[in-house]
Amino acid sequence: MAISLPELPFKKDDLAPYISANTLDFHHGKHHKTYVDNLNKLIAGTDLADKTLEEIIKIAAKDTEKAGIFNNAAQIWNHSFYWQCLKKNGGGAPQGAIAAKISSTWGSYDKFAEELKNAGVTQFGSGWAWLVMEENKLKITKTANADMPLAHGQKAILTIDVWEHAYYLDYQNRRADYLAAVIQNLINWDFANANLG
Ligand code: MN
User: Fold this and answer.
1) Of 132, 130, 128, residue with least CA distance to 155
2) What's the CA-to-centroid distance between 16 and ligand 1, angstroms?
């Protein structure tokens, strides 16, 4: 079975003006799709061809000869996860179980939001800012390129893509403005709450 490109979980113009339909056309229709096409070519006819995406990631993460497979597989997973972290009229302070966990971990939502934005701003080059669960504690982390929590025994709760292709058409070099807009207006806290379970 081949790995497939998931549909976006929202309409392409739902996230405007914070993320434009034009950005999503390229980001989902070209970048995400290319990772899917590349991985399917790399695993065709190998013993990875019948594995799930998560199984491929875990196997390739431990084998430096499979770096190309890891990079494409992890980028497919990261993007599919990222789309679910976004929704129209999202963002701002959360409700539900995650709200109490954020307060007890960071003291306030504002402090949490500042640290999440800072993780994305300070990721040098391409990568991802994350909210993860590790040993039953919430943590904010950042990873380079395709690297991701599953490769480090962490459970992903939220992510924001900080590769330039995620924001350059809408914000040019202003990564901090993109991060602030996503955190204030697009974070899907229902998805984050579901990931706590
Ligand atoms: Mn991306």
Assistant:
1) 132
2) 17
Centre of ligand 1 from the C-alpha of residue 75, in Å: 8
- For the structural domain made of 97-196, what CATH number should be given? 3.55.40.20
**C-alpha 104 – ligand 1 centre gap (Å):** 31
CATH code that applies to domain 21-84: 1.10.287.990
Per-residue pLDDT tens digits of the chain, which is 197 residues long? 699 999 999 999 999 999 999 999 999 999 999 999 999 999 999 999 999 999 999 999 999 999 999 999 999 999 999 999 999 999 999 999 999 999 999 999 999 999 999 999 999 999 999 999 999 999 999 999 999 999 999 999 999 999 999 999 999 999 999 999 999 999 999 999 999 98
Q: What is the dihedral of CA 176, 177, 183, 186, to 10 degrees?
A: -140
Beta-bridge partners for 143: 128
Determine the distance separating the centroid of ligand 1 and the alpha carbon of 192, expressed in angstroms.
19
